[in-house]
């Protein structure tokens, strides 16, 4: 069962426009927040690349089952007499949302930022984990009213 559902509305709109118009860009626009996600035992791990982003400029929130990551990377051209020569990285505000399954424990999400990577660890909720059911041996005793 999938516990994460990815959404990137702008990427999907770009993809649909390219299909409708028959346009394929040689320079496909990558996501501003590239991400890997995997399951490690009873925990889902998300690794989101945010190089050059100050940790204080990252906001992670959960509302109902929607996980939202917002970040801001400063634009270097706003500092003095800077003349941009090549601009391939996204600058400014970025947002990424994921819809989480009810089987995840959103109360216990752990977020860490190291070396430009935001790592979120989302445990599977106890109620969603498989469990063994005890089997009682012997005949079932019926209650007989006298």
Automatic annotation (TrEMBL):
CDD domains: ACD_sHsps-like. Transmembrane segments: none annotated. It comes from the Bacteria. Residues 26-138 form the SHSP domain. PROSITE patterns: SHSP. InterPro entries: A-crystallin/Hsp20_dom, HSP20-like_chaperone, Small_HSP. Belongs to the small heat shock protein (HSP20) family. PANTHER family: HEAT-SHOCK PROTEIN 20 FAMILY MEMBER (PTHR11527). This is HSP20 family protein. It comes from Pseudonocardia thermophila.
């Amino acid at each position: 069962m999938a516990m994460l559902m990815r959404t990137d509305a702008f990427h999907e709109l770009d993809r649909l426009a390219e299909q409708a118009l028959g346009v394929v860009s040689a320079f496909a626009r990558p996501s501003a927040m590239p991400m890997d996600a995997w399951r490690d035992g009873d925990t889902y791990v998300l690794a989101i690349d945010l190089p050059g982003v100050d940790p204080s400029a990252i906001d992670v929130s959960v509302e109902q089952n929607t996980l939202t990551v917002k970040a801001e990377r400063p634009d270097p051209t706003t500092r003095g007499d800077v003349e941009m020569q090549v601009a391939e990285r996204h600058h400014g505000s970025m947002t990424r949302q994921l819809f989480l399954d009810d089987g995840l424990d959103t109360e216990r999400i752990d977020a860490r930022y190291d070396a430009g990577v935001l790592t979120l660890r989302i445990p599977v909720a106890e109620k969603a984990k498989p469990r063994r059911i005890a089997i009682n041996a012997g005949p079932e005793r019926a209650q007989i009213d006298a």
